Amino acid sequence: MTQRQGKRRENIFDVYASKVSLKIASFIRLDKLKRASLERALKIPGISLTPECYVAKAWVTVGTAALCAVPMAFLIPLMVLLLAIAGAVLIPIY
């Protein structure tokens, strides 16, 4: 069975996450066992990142999701409150 090696279009998030993770990767230190294990795991699917860069990219992705979630934690209850008020105004109670 042959694998399909087509050209995949890069999305903008992956490009910027890779750039940021390359800068962060120099600060990450992995012990020999963890590094070797991660190198083998990355070699199997053909991911051409260093283990440090892979870990940094994972942290950048998680951090970005967390930064998007924090404002939503404040906005969603506010939107629910506004919808409840709008529903009470639009639906008269007899």
Summarize the helices and strands and which ones pair or pack.
Layout: H1 12-25, H2 32-43, H3 51-90
Helix pairs in contact: 1-3
Characterize the overall form: elongated
- Summed over residues and divided by their number, the pLDDT gives a mean of 87
Main pleated-sheet profile: none
What class, by secondary structure content? mainly alpha
Poorly predicted regions are none
Terminal CA distance: 70 Å
Number of strands: 0
Strand content: under 5%
- Following the backbone from N to C, one meets helices and strands in this order, namely HHH
Helix content: over 70%
What gyration radius follows from the Cα positions, in whole Å?
22 Å
Description:
The protein is mainly alpha-helical. It contains three helices and no strands. Helix 1 (12-25) packs across helix 3. The chain is elongated, with a radius of gyration of 22 Å. The chain starts with 11 loop residues before the first helix and ends with a helix. The relative contact order is 0.10.
Please describe the structure with a list of short key phrases separated by commas or semicolons.
single chain; 94 residues; mainly alpha; 70% helix
Short description, anyone?
It is built from 3 helices and no strands. By secondary structure, the chain is mainly alpha-helical.
